[in-house]
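#data-curation
PF: Archiving a pair of folding outputs for the training set. Convention for this channel: one message per protein, sequence first, structure tokens after, nothing in between. First:
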Amino acid sequence: MFRDNNLQRITLSYNDGSYSIIADTTDFGSILPNEFIEVSFIKKGSVSLKKGTEELGQFTKVTVIQNQTGTSLILAPKSPNLKQRKYKDDFELTGGSKGITLVNLVDVDNYVSGVVESEGGSGRQLEYYKVQAVISRTYALKYLGKHKKEGFDLCDRTHCQAYYNMVRYSPEIDSAVIATHDVVMESYDGKLIDAYFHANCGGQTCEPHLIWNEEIDYLSTFRDTFCIYTKQATWEKRISQKDWVDFLVLKYSYPIYDSLCASLVCTFDQPERTAFYLHPMFGIPLRDIRDHFDLKSTFFSCHPEGEDVVLQGRGFGHGVGLCQEGAMKMAKLGYTYDQIARYYFPKVLLVNYFDQRYFRLN
């Protein structure tokens, strides 16, 4: 948790239900209403513990365990001073190489609920939350152990999946997670899929190899008519011609002194998604342009205007897999979660994860 920061000091305080405090092998009672503990980083392998204002000592590991299921704590980093979060289930705190390693020992469904709200926001349709829950569960189970060498399974960043709180604003997310309990997406050969998603595809999903140089047989580009009139379907950005040309010339040796190439350098038409700027022979990946100029997507066309290059873009994100705004629109129109899932992943199966594994073992 708080993976982007080197935690030096954090408090864990009462939110809902009591928690037992175990430091190494010593029981220090419970966190009750109006109570908190404070954990501080000492060095790798060592943290200090306070309960309220009472110093309890230095320990290898502090474990905070719920005394009944369904409870939660408030986590408030003090150094650095960050916005507090709320999470369910249990916690472990140890001394990492540069700060506290805080691990949430969380039930899969509670984790998925937190991810769905972090990734999908509040106020959406139930069927959208269901399909997002299936996607998030599939990813979590496929990549369980991604950070095994660091002592935990998944981080709270988009590197894995955004997990910034337990569900707070949309209780229907818990209903969606329960309704799809253990449902995941698998390929026809019985493997969990890469359940990619993005905010908006701009009307056409993207082939994985255009982004990651990787073919995925169950993901292919298609026209998506559900997202084209939504919030993030189009965008525009102006960049100075000097900055644009300098980037192309200095990084990719674009032949600016060739008169024909010079006339083309700021003019690009992309009616359908492609991988390279102007032509593959120049070797300029659109994903590199997106990263350098902080663009919303690689799906853009451009033209010169005065001293600027005007980019007219479509979509937000890499464009591979499920388009969130398209899925939200489908849910509003009455499509069920499994219909939405099969629209964006037509070559996959929706199955019960644990049932499938039971039958394969027996």
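PF: Second:
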Amino acid sequence: MQSEDSQFQDYVYQLIGSRTTLFAARNSGLYRSDDGGQTWQTAYRSLELAEPLPTITVAISPDFEHDPLLFAGLSGGIFRSLDGGQVWENILLPPPPPVISSIVISPNFEKDGIVFAATMEDGVLFSSDRGSRFDAWNFGLLDLNILCQAISPNFAEDETVFAGTQSGIFRSTNGGRAWREVDLPVGYETVLSLALSPDFAQDGILLAGTETQGLLLSTDKGESWRQVGEDEFTMAVNAVILSPEFATRQEILVLHGGSLFYSADCGDTWTPWREEILADTDVTAVLALKGFDPGVLVLVGLANGEVVTCV
């Protein structure tokens, strides 16, 4: 998949998907695939845009097949679609127009309708009505430059959400109403990516990818941390993906610089991943809905706008 305009420098910011539908947020817009990433079409067709609309982040409802709600985060706002991208609406946000860096949806979305939108310079925006209205929820949030978020799989019970900022990590245990800074062993450090174990309520595992201090691991819900992969990770860790079966197979895939690294033992040892396919590429995004085994579809987004299917 490449940009239609060869003069336009494209970039895949994020890949996300359900069982049947995939989305790629790119510098040239938002794209949709209904055939496992083999072909892609613009999701903004109904907008009849005269020029590309850079899309930084994308989020879909947990039950997208039955509730095809879709959010697109932009530099200046949020678009929402209730029908999988056929029709869009521009959501009214608190001024000034924010740069949306991340959108996460409650695992209990069908009942609570909760959405968190992270911004650069304006903190966290919160909605409890399926994204119809957002309000700033920044009490205790000392750094309003947010680069990533992670929400507890057990959010309905523990109300826990994390925000990675330019200076570290903040945690809320009351659904975003108040935030508290998390102490990191590396001091103030830009956090680019966060990932929570699917079994977070029991194992307390949280990983944080940083700009200059590699990968950090916590096994007690962020109370204490240690660095992992110190010898491998000397550049920015831009994404951390955990296996869906992480509770029994503690596999991790990390985007380090523009390359992918794999661990089968919760970060104790690391090896390059799919070098034979991704050699000489600049990876920017990864989607692994069913894990990382050979024969399982993994989508990899590149800095030139392409999406590569790795099987």
